[in-house]
Amino acid sequence: MENINKIKKLSIWIFIVPFIAINTCLILITNFHQFFNLEHVVLPTIPYIDGGTSISRTARVFPTYLIFKPAMFITAFFLIQYWRFNSDLMGKISPYLNYKKIFLFFGIGSAIFLILHSIFLGVKFDNDLYKLFRRVLVLFFIIFEVSQNTIFLENNKYFMKL
């Protein structure tokens, strides 16, 4: 029961931390133009409705990345804890489950790719290889997250039959 409560709390923080960071960056870049170079300024928009900007556009310039990057590091730490607690819970429910190590590998792997992507966010090199590297990091984050969630859903089907 202790793991379930920790998992619930971490789930909420995994949502809240990035949500606050993203919206803080959006408010800064759309309303406080004096802190930004003119080329980075975004006119007032509601991206959830009109798609006027992206998360990357609002979070990759100074000073917004000073908010966004630490928030992503904290979120990645929470993700690692979240998948560890889920893995422990699965081990307690069914100690013979074969997916447990793969499940944990993809869960922690996705958090590591999130950290790596966050490190390189806002760093500019005019090099095609570097741009490809950043895109590959995002791609692997998505692949690991989808793979991990697929394994998680398959295990939940198994637990529902018990």
What does this structure look like?
The chain is mostly helical and 162 residues long. The protein is built from 6 helices and no strands. It has helices spanning 2-31, 47-50, 55-59, 65-93, 100-120, 128-161. The longest helix is centred in the C-terminal third of the chain and has 34 residues, at 128-161. The chain is elongated. The two termini are 18 Å apart. The relative contact order is 0.12. The mean pLDDT is 82.
The tally of strands reads 0
**β-strand amount:** under 5%
The value of Rg in angstroms is 19 Å
Determine the mean pLDDT: 82
Task: Describe the main β-sheet briefly.
Answer: none
Structural class: mainly alpha
What is the element string, with H for helices and E for strands? HHHHHH
Assembly state: single chain
Number of helices: 6
Instruction: Report the helical percentage.
Output: over 70%
> Whole-Å distance between the termini?
18 Å
Unreliable stretches (pLDDT < 50, length at least 5) are none
Shape: elongated
Write a brief structural summary.
The protein is an all-alpha fold and 162 residues long.
What's the arrangement of secondary structure elements?
Elements: H1 2-31, H2 47-50, H3 55-59, H4 65-93, H5 100-120, H6 128-161
